[in-house]
Amino acid sequence: MAAIIFLLSMAVGVVTSQPSPPPSGNCHIPAIYNFGDSNSDTGGIAAAFYPPGPPCGETFFKRPVGRASDGRLIIDFIAEKLGLLYLSAYLDSIKANYTHGANFATGGATIKRVNESWFANGVSPFSLDVQVEHFNQFKDKTTYLYNQAKEESQRSNLPKPDDFVKAIYTIDIGQNDIAYAFRTLGVEASRVVIPDLVNQFVSCVQQLYGKGARAFWIHNTGPIGCLPVIYAKNLDPPPGSLDEVGCAKDQNAIAIEFNKQLRAKVIQLRSDLPKAILIYVDMYSAKYELISNAKDLGFKQWFTICCGYHDVDEDVYCGNRGKINGSEVFADSCKDPTKVISWDGVHYSDAANNWIATKITKGLFSDPSLSITELCPKHVSIM
Ligand SMILES: *[C@@H]1O[C@H](CO)[C@@H](O)[C@H](O)[C@H]1NC(C)=O
Ligand SMILES: *[C@@H]1O[C@H](CO)[C@@H](O)[C@H](O)[C@H]1NC(C)=O
Ligand SMILES: *[C@@H]1O[C@H](CO)[C@@H](O)[C@H](O)[C@H]1NC(C)=O
Description:
InterPro entries: GDSL, SGNH_hydro_sf, SGNH_plant_lipase-like. The chain is an alpha/beta fold. It has one domain: 3-Layer(aba) Sandwich (Rossmann fold).
């Protein structure tokens, strides 16, 4: 199995470009609090460890900015859609601005703590439970500081305490737990861990609710069997192991099972947490639709990797130097990153994230089907 997942990427960075004004006619969502892995990390793991350099960020930000992509992530497009600035990472202490939310996601993060490390396997020490703990501290400290402030200027990068209940809480995590299970148990046996993962996920949602979160936007996990790095290593697939698009069927089956159980739990949470609104977003189907229609949508074949070299036993990840077929190479980007779905074999390109975000923010893959701009929390006091 490919040693998957989290390339990090990055460089401490605050993004300065200003999004368009908020859409009118919907409720005003003042902030986003995000939890997850590299799919939505806007600079957390980069601030905590080593930020990989160029060519990450080149398409949109024109420099590495802590994201595993050539440009924006889905969470960035969500922020744009809500008329908010891109989220600062909680772990980034340089010019962070938290007036409109914070990002607790870290590349390589898992739902459950695992017995591996950042240095050995690229696993983030900031698992979902730790991210929730970071949020708790964030909320308590910023509320204290906001209330202590003697003048407005002392609040210029702090969230308004009243906004926590009106914010949306986005979560996108699970892929690294599944990859970890593949590594340690094998693909088929991975099924056994799913209930535990989903329970832990739910427990984190309940803790956020206990801390006043009321509107949840929950992404399920993507088609891990369609990661181009897996495809690149699987040159001689056993007959019948790939689906009609070329993705690994058994790996996708585990993601599908995780999603099925997660969805059932989200439905359960709607009765357990009566003051909350919970949107379940079928990210798997959105990504799979893009992958299976790559050509028609103007992209190269889905397994094309823009940045990085991979074959059966060699890998030179994006932005690194290494040896492939006996020659020294630098893994730079392809000619036109706007035509590829996969930036680095694991993470999606700015163009792909844009396509996916456009669909999901309209509610086309959500249950209930609701545009993200209509995700108004049921206005209620906390607890
Ligand atoms: C983690 O590793 C330690 C020491 O190698 C071992 O004793 C423990 O059982 C492992 N825990 C899990 C959950 O695998
Ligand atoms: C933080 O962003 C808000 C907009 O959300 C802006 O009004 C404020 O001036 C910014 N604060 C700093 C310190 O840049
Ligand atoms: C290495 O060489 C082989 C044989 O020419 C080729 O099939 C393979 O794609 C090369 N590997 C990479 C990563 O370019």
